[in-house]
Write a structure and sequence with these properties.
Helix content is about 75%, strand content about 0%. By secondary structure, it is mainly α. The longest helix is centred in the middle third of the chain and has 18 residues.
Amino acid sequence: QRVESLCVSNGLTNLMGELYESVLERPIAANIRKSLLERYLGMLNGQTDNQARDTFLRIHAQLFCISPSPYLATLLEKFTAKDESALRTWTGYIEEAMSEIEDSSTKIKLYATLTHIFLDILKDDENAAESAKNILNLDPSSVVAFKTCFSCNERREDYFECCELFKSFPIDKFTSEDRK
């Protein structure tokens, strides 16, 4: 903490970043890793140069994969201000960091976040459909993921994929309300 405050006050944030990076590259306990990521993210928040921006997005994605929370989602929204390039960079970092996640419920939350970003912000039906399909791979009875995947493929006129979805989805999971 003392080194961090000295580095920040003397404009040596790159040095501080290198220190965090070197520590984070080592195998450390999950709770310590989360704490370090939170501190590093706090240090980067508000910096404007491109290197700090890219590092912020990468560290944010790693932390979001460990602990997806509304606070982190809001922080990302404020930091990127719906900047498409920044969001695409972040989604790439999320996909990289997800390879280390084993818990399927966490993966579903992460894919749901990606689906939302691709669908509602980036207007990218192809990647939204892929994220929704990943949810279906983890939870084959997810009606929301099915509907999202189907509608994205329909808009893309990928009717073969729509048929494949119908073949693989357990239709009995639809309630009468879902069938509308």
